[in-house]
Amino acid sequence: MSFFDKIFGGKEETPDHKSFWKKIESEEDLAKAIEHSFHHKIAIFKHSTSCFISKTVLRNFEKEVQNSDGKADLYYLDLLAHRPISNKIAEDLGIRHESPQFIVIENGKPVNSASHQDISLSQIQ
C-alpha cells in the first residue's frame, strides 16, 4: 500500500470485510430491504467509492457501528456500480440523491436521512 493510499483510503476501501453490511446490488435486493423495514428499521448507506469524503464518512460510520448494539439492518449501496438503483431509491422514497447518504426506513417510508458529515448511527434512533 502506498503512502497516499494510507492517507486517502486506497482501493481496498469496500465494506466486504464488515459483517454487518447487507449489499444492495439489484432492484430485487432493494425490494427485500424495503420489505424488511416493515418488521424493523433498516438503513441504507449510499457510498461513492471514488470520493475521498465518502470514504472518510464510511470509515467513521463503520467504527461507530462496531461499537454499537446494532439496532437496525444496515444496507450498503455502491453508487458507481449501481447508479440506477440509487436513482430508484431517490424516486421511490422521494429523497433527493446525495453522496454519501444515509437513509433510515421504517414501514416502507423514510423516517430520517443525512448526508456527508451529518451521517451518524444516531439517525436510526
From TrEMBL:
Gene3D superfamilies: Glutaredoxin. SUPFAM superfamilies: Thioredoxin-like. NCBIfam families: B_thiol_YtxJ. This is Bacillithiol system redox-active protein YtxJ. The gene is ytxJ.
